[in-house]
Amino acid sequence: MMETKLLTVCLSFLVSVSLANNPGFVVRLTEHGLQYVRDLALQLLREELQHMDIPDQRGESGTPIGKIDYTLSSIRVESATVASLDISLDSGSGIRVSTSGVSLRMKADWRYKNRGFIHISDHGSIDLAIAVDLSLTGTSEMTANGQPTASVVRCEFNVQNVDVHFHGGASWLYNLFSGHVEKAIKTNLQSQACSKITETLNRNGQKAMETLDLIEEVGNDIQLDLRLVQSPIFESNYLESLQKGQFSYHKSPSLNFSPQPLSVPTYLSGQMFYMFVTEAMLNSAGEVYQKSGKLKLKITSDEISSSSFFQLNTDTIAGLIPGSTLKSKFPNMGMQLVVTVTQAPKFTICTDSIKSVISTDMIAYVIHPDGNLTYVFTLGLVLNSTLGLWVENTDGRLYLGLTKNITVIHGAVTVKDSIIGHFSGENIEAWLNLGVPFILHGIQTKGIPIPTVRALTFVDPHITLLEGSLAIGTDVKYDMSQS
Fold first, then answer.
1. Whose CB has fewer CB within 10 Å in the chain, the N or C terminal residue?
2. Contact of 414 with 380, CB cutoff 8 Å
């Protein structure tokens, strides 16, 4: 049924989340998004009506020839129209879908037999035209393990009109009292439709919710927990899903995860969806990516433009560490740096920038002409930086990553080990603003994937920085052929 798919699409994306009191990740569907869902639902409803499977109808009716039992079988829809469809949010209740002027023209086979002393039966075909109005309210709650539910809580079904026309058999006679059959069909539909619709939608909707995987695989042995932390929120102008947003490595969740209450500004309403990534979620990602060894980068001169004033060779590096024997031992030779983040990065999101504290080890090697490496020194770097972020749609997924707009506010350098004599790290601190942005950018060039659902494409995503969180606003396109 159309309403099952509609509620599943909305909730799959919204919950597309230990159960903490505060969410680490929040998804909001705005009024603009609801308008898109309305247009999508109208198209979906027309297709569903055109291809829906209608069970055989059986009933009884009083006619001029006495009481009869009738059967309508092989019911098929020839055409379907929908005059109007409206979707709205009932505050504190759920999603309300209302249709009016739904008209179906159908064909079926008919058969009847009377209940009199002399048994009479006949059969043939029949044309039916039915006009109905339907209103449903669906809602979603949270199970004990953070899974969403989907159910119909209100149904109104009103048959406006039924017209029948018999063919075959003694159809000329039956058409004279077709009104009796029309009344019987109308009464039958009116009394049974809501219970059958509700039963079907609840069964199919819950089945869809149970198969929804809220532990997102975002890399080898890295998962993102998107189970609900409370039931979805239905307000008059938005629908909101509050999810955990905690990363884990080898199924061991990040330790430092305590989301703060999220305040969403009212001015963020111009796009269909908003996804809010909190500091807690960002720090959870940093901890897990560091623990998994993914925050590691090997840099050689091949990654540096030949036109750059800074070249990764012994002559350049020796100028930064006076007193060392680097240049005399290894004159005019290339170098390789291996940069590893040694502690979980700490991120703070402000309205004007994202600040970070990142601790790294930088291990330097000399590259000999034959390609062999000789270890020369290890530096410890503690970097207080401001970061820029990018967001883009790649291969159907949304990725969040670092830009090259990285500024080191303060950098502390210690010499942990050296085979080229004692030297000070003071001059290297002056180089940090030049070299470290390149290093940090290279650590995570692809970005962290943002959860989505199949057949959903993001359109014009952009980032807004808030206090303690960042908002990714985006429009979407949904391809029903892939659903």
1. C
2. yes
Those residues with Cβ within 8 angstroms of residue 252's Cβ, 6 or more apart along the chain or in another chain: none
Residue with the two structure tokens 């159960």: 19
| Full DSSP string of 279-346 | HHHHHHHHHHHHHTT-SEEEEEGGGS-TTSS---BHHHHHHHSTT-SHHHHSTT-EEEEEEEE-S--E
Q: What is the DSSP letter of 260?
A: P
- Tokens matching residue 101: 């002027």
Cα separation, 438 vs 440, whole angstroms: 6
User: How far, in Å, CA of 463 to CA of 452, rounded?
Assistant: 17
φ/ψ of residue 12, rounded to 5 = -60, -45
Q: For the segment 224-252, what is each residue's pLDDT rounded down to a tens digit?
A: 999 999 999 999 999 999 999 999 998 78
Residue 104 clears pLDDT 90, i.e. is over it: no
CATH (domain of 135): 3.15.10.10
Same domain as 171, residue 248: no
Given a cut of 60, is residue 476 above it in pLDDT?
Answer: yes
Between 42 and 247, the more confident residue is 247
**156 and 231 together in one domain:** no
Residue at 199 is within a domain: yes
Number of structural domains, the chain?
2
pLDDT in tens, 171-197: 776 676 678 778 877 887 788 888 888
Within 112-245, residue ranges assigned H as helices are 171-174, 178-210
The per-residue pLDDT for 19 is: 42
CA distance 55 to 199: 15
